[in-house]
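Wait, can you check?
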Amino acid sequence: MLYFNNDYAEGCHPKVLEALCRTNFDQTPGYGEDAYCAEAARKIRALCGREDVAVHFLVGGTQTNMTVIAAALRPHQGALCAVSGHIHVHETGAVEATGHKVLALPSEDGKITAAQVRQAVESHRNDGSFEHMVQPKLVYISNPTELGTLYSLAELTALSETCHELGLYLFLDGARLGYGLMAKGNDLTLPDIARLCDVFYIGGTKVGALFGEAVVICCPALKEDFRYLIKQHGGMLAKGRLLGVQFDALMTDNLYFEISAHADALADRLRDTLLSLNVPFLVPGVTNQLFPILPDSVLDKLSEKYVFCEQQRVDETHRAVRFCTSWASREEAVDALCGDLRLLFGKN
């Protein structure tokens, strides 16, 4: 079987594994207070173009999301996000289980707008019973989104300005950030994100690491006591240097960005094939996640050889599915899938 169901099926990039093996017997302080974490943080600050940001390494995305949100919110406050947002649909209520309500906003493409945020906040503030309702205090977005779409510089700027005007924090989930930054048509840079967001993270689990996420805190108010919250939420690794070693390798010689571009290029190859076959998409996208709408007969045949994710049924005979490329995807696997698609559509 050839796997296109996610971007974390493999272990880690060989350069990351080599770095882990090379440093295996080094003795270091624990809990991220080692030289490898310090060097990885230094490289991330340089890439962000800001020396004043705090960088912390956590073990996974769910722990990262609930730790950041716990740092930002008081008990009566909640997080605004798209109805398809990861914290709303894919984390088993982790944020709500630890005390903060997720306030979902309607979205067709995985994104939310500055106008939606303003309307939600002003509706709350203008309601005579506002003290009886959860107060919006943080906006959570993903880039790329759960549907593989991207925020533009203009959209992120508008969100940032609106959040800061209204006194909200802006938090960007970057679990797949590399794939977004390297996608065709993207006009956001890492320094842009560091300038416009109060906090964000650079995903490693889905982009070449065995595990781990790098949280970048730009807002001074969120930096205080953050390590206490990492520990309390189960995100502090005793062998923290394992995270530092991995991110140090990923941030050396442009590796993180090169492997992200590789995944996007292969996704583009598959996307072009689907477009040439006049296959519609659930949402248009330019990153490593594709959501084509295909006939059941085609999908049933493909499932004999390929693994992909079911997204939703569109009508009685068609389903939207997700094909996902990764830093480790092989050209021959993508070419095989493209060839089989053309064959099934009678184009070979």
Notes: The longest helix spans residues 255-276. The chain has 15 helices and 13 strands.
